[in-house]
Design brief:
By secondary structure, the chain is of the alpha/beta class. It contains 7 helices and 8 strands; from the N terminus they run E-H-E-H-E-H-E-H-H-E-E-E-E-H-H. The strands form 2 sheets. Strands 2-1-3-4 form a 4-stranded parallel beta sheet. It has a 4-stranded antiparallel beta sheet with strand order 5-6-7-8, with helices on one face. The chain is elongated, with a radius of gyration of 22 Å. 18% of the residues are buried.
Length: 233
C-alpha cells in the first residue's frame, strides 16, 4: 500500500520533510505532499482568491492508495473535498484534525458555509474518537461546588462510550451508544452517573431546565435533512 501524507502548504511540508530526514519519501510506500498546489508560489492575489474560495488547483498524488491529511484549517477543508471528487476511489484519513472545532468556524465570514458540513464533513466517519469534558455543578450543601469530568470514546466499529473519570487515571463506562450523542446528552449521562453514585441530588424538572437551558445541541448535531449520518454512526 502506498500512502501520501498531505499537508496544507509547502511550509508545513518542508517542516515535515526536515523531521523525516530532508526527504519527501521517508519510508518505503510513504510520500509527503501538499494538498493545494497554489501554495508552492503564493502571492497576495492568490491569498485574496483563496479567501473567497476561488483560484488555485488541487492535484492528486499519482499511484497512492490512501491519503492521510494533517493540520488542515477550516478554510483548507474544501481542498480535501476537491481531492475526494478527483480521486474518489481512494481512502482519505483525517488525522487528529479536531473537526468539531473546525465545524464551529463554518458559516463565519471568509469560511466555508454551514452547508459544507451537510455536503462533505458529514461523510467523515469517526474511527478513533476521544473527547474529554469537565463540568462544575453547584449544590446546596458543602462543598457547594462539585467538579466532575469524563470523556466520549469510540474505537470503530465499537459504540460511542460515555466514560466517567473516577480519579487516578481510571474511567468507568457509564453508557454505550450506537449513535454519537450530542454533547448535551453526554453531559446528562455523566450527571446521571453522579446522581446514581449519590454525589449529586436529583432536582425538579424546572430547576434542571434552568441549568441546561432550552438548547442543548450545536447546529451540526441537530437533524439536518441534507446531511449524512456517517459522522455519528
Amino acid at each position: 500500500m502506498r500512502i501520501a501524507i498531505l499537508l496544507p502548504d509547502e511550509t508545513e511540508a518542508k517542516i515535515a520533510m526536515e523531521n523525516a530526514g530532508s526527504t519527501a519519501k521517508p519510508y518505503p510506500g510513504i510520500v509527503i505532499s501538499i494538498s493545494d498546489e497554489r501554495t508552492k508560489k503564493i502571492n497576495i492575489g492568490q491569498v485574496f482568491m483563496k479567501l473567497f474560495g476561488r483560484g488555485g488547483k488541487v492535484k492528486p498524488v499519482d499511484d497512492v492508495d490512501m491519503y492521510i491529511c494533517l493540520v488542515a484549517s477550516s478554510q483548507e477543508l474544501p481542498d480535501i473535498e476537491e481531492l475526494h471528487k478527483m480521486d474518489s476511489d481512494k481512502v482519505i484519513v483525517f488525522y487528529n484534525l479536531k473537526l468539531d472545532v473546525l465545524r464551529g468556524d463554518l458559516g463565519a465570514p471568509a469560511f466555508p458555509s454551514k452547508e459544507f458540513q451537510d455536503r462533505f464533513l458529514s461523510l467523515v466517519k469517526p474511527v478513533y474518537f476521544l473527547r474529554t469534558r469537565q463540568y462544575t455543578r453547584s449544590v446546596p450543601n458543602p462543598p457547594f461546588m462539585i467538579s466532575y469530568q469524563g470523556c466520549m470514546f469510540r474505537s470503530y466499529p465499537g459504540q460511542y462510550q460515555t466514560l466517567l473519570d473516577t480519579g487516578n487515571g481510571s474511567y468507568r463506562r457509564v453508557q454505550g451508544n450506537d449513535i454519537r450523542p450530542p454533547l448535551g446528552v453526554f453531559k446528562e449521562q455523566l450527571t446521571e452517573a453522579m446522581r446514581m453514585d449519590g454525589v449529586l441530588e436529583r432536582e425538579s424538572e424546572t430547576l434542571n431546565f434552568l441549568r441546561t437551558g432550552y438548547k442543548t445541541t450545536t447546529w451540526w448535531e441537530e437533524e439536518r435533512p441534507q446531511a449524512s449520518d456517517s459522522w455519528k454512526t
